[in-house]
Amino acid sequence: MSTVDTSQNLTPSAAAKLRRTAWYRTERYTRLWAMIALGLLLALVTGEQGNTRDIFYSITHTLTGVNLWVCLGATVGVWALREFAATPIKGAVSAARGSAAAAAGGPVGSLRARFQADKRLRLGAYAVLLVLVLVVPSGLERSWQTVLVDQIAIFALLAIGLNVVIGWAGLLDLGFFAFFAVGAYSTAFWTGRLPVEPPVVLNNFWVIPVAVLTCLACGVLLGAPTLRLRGDYLAIVTLGFHEIIYLVAKNADGITGGPQGARLIPDFSIDFAGIEYTWSIKPLPYWYLLVFFIVLVIILFSRLEHSRVGRAWTAIREDEIAAAANGVNTVQFKLMAFAIGASTSGVAGVIFTSKYGYINPEVFPLLQSILILAYVIFGGMGSIPGVLIGTAILVWLPEALKDWVDPSDRYMYLGALLVVMMIYRPQGVWPSRRRQRELKLAEEGSGDAVATSEPAGGKN
Q1: Cα(409)–Cα(45) distance, rounded to whole angstroms?
Q2: Beta strands in 203-289 (DSSP E)
Q3: Is the pLDDT of residue 368 over 50?
Q4: What's the N-to-C CA distance of the chain in angstroms?
Q5: Calpha distance 101→95 (Å, rounded)
Q6: What are 186-238's pLDDT values in tens digits?
Q7: Gap between the Cα atoms of 417 and 373, Å rounded
Q8: pLDDT value for 104
Q9: How far apart are CA 427 and CA 393, in angstroms?
Q10: Single pTM value for the model
């Protein structure tokens, strides 16, 4: 790995000390140690199970078996391919980019620039993608249609909302799934399936705006007392918010139904102008309904991202103190981020609850909040396409592994993929242009780029 020789500007002792820098402390080998540690972790979590007679049984058998070398070989192999095999390719790509700089970035750059400039081309590509999304699922097996609806589409809505909070406003939220529970219990309440009777029983479609408003209010209630917190402190508070919602749902028997939850929640139905239709348990009708709301949310949030509100969120994420000094009402915009981000959870909660017809507190574990955060980071914080891609990949992977991997180990492989991703591509699969530029500046050490060292909530 090439480095800039700065020893000529240093004193002899300082230059000698620089030359004595150990090879194992370089950036390349720091990544090697991380991959070796990952291999050891994979070997331990996929190795022999422990027993009560010998507390070291699992460790001794795992660290002396073939599984250890398989895991180490896999992780070190990934490191070697990334560090050495990709070097000539990277050099060739860099040379090609340099020679094509005068030609507007080469054919790929020209195509991307044309795509961004030509509105008709963009609309055509989006239309083709939408047609594929609507047509392809009908040819899938019933099990994969269920995965599309119950996991990918539902979590895509949740991830788009969390992207507002963490990707655009930079507010680290570890309890986002609690808003999904609020939307779900709002459905049970307004359809008359909780011990507390509603003022009026509503159709499920009318419950959606009510659930969205309820989640908006909960977002404001969460944001109001936490406005002065950032980074890890905010994360802890949001974690507590999730536990509060979970415990209230589990223990308030006279309000939420307690551990039994709510049952016999009606399906979506339409009876208007002679049109009658009732959604059944079949997944495809719910898939089309979810696609409609996802497209609607993407359109609204894309407009919001490039508005005055979106620019204010970006300013808060970059430096809240500087944003306040320049006239940005940080209190107002942080509250808006919490509220607007939580709104998609109301839609997801209503659709999920209506499809299954029942809910209980165990449907909303803390792990789901962590998974949604992983989807956003893996796909690319601040990027709506990245969030959708990250959700699809990380939801698909455990399902694809179910025939070969023990259920208790599936998420271990998911975690390993996240570790590799954070080592080699921390910006995500499809990063936003702003995030990609920040990380590039941080790697070069130029300007005030601190994208790789600053927590998501900003400096403390």
Answers
A1: 7
A2: 269-272, 275-278
A3: yes
A4: 34
A5: 10
A6: 999 999 999 999 999 999 999 999 999 999 999 998 888 877 787 788 889 99
A7: 15
A8: 38
A9: 16
A10: 0.78
438: amino acid identity, one letter: E
| 113 — pLDDT class (breaks 50, 70, 90) | low
| Residue 443 near residue 425 (C-beta atoms within 8 A) | no
Residues 6+ apart with CB under 8 A from 232: 172, 455, 457, 460
Both structure tokens of 404:
């070969």
The letter for the amino acid at 59 is I
**Looking at residue 198, what DSSP letter applies?**
P
Question: Burial level of 412, CB count in 10 A (0-12/13-18/19+)?
Answer: middle
H helices within 366-409, ranges in order? 366-379, 384-400
User: In the chain, how many H helices and how many E strands?
Assistant: 21, 2
> What confidence score (pLDDT) does residue 455 get?
41
**Residue 357 tokens, joined:** 């017809």
Question: Distance of CA 428 to CAs 9, 221, 376, 434, Å?
Answer: 38, 31, 8, 12
Asked whether the beta carbons of 167 and 383 are under 8 A apart, the reply is: yes
Question: By the 8 A CB rule, do 165 and 218 touch?
Answer: no
Count of CB atoms within 10 A of residue 440's CB? 13
Q: CB–CB of 385/149 below 8 Å?
A: no
Q: Quick: pLDDT tens for 400-429.
A: 887 777 777 777 778 888 888 888 888 888
Can you read off the two tokens belonging to residue 231?
A: 């980074």
Q: Which residue reads 């709510």 in tokens? A: 262
Mean pLDDT lowest among 62-71, 200-209, 435-444: 435-444
Mean pLDDT for all residues in the chain? 81
Residues contacting 58, CB < 8 A, separation 6+: 44, 47, 48, 49, 50
Cα-atom radius of gyration of the chain, to the nearest Å? 25
pLDDT of residue 106: 43
How far apart are the C-alpha atoms of 29 and 35, rounded to whole Å? 10
- Percent of the chain clearing pLDDT 90 (strictly above): 37
Tokens 């179910």 map to which residue? 402
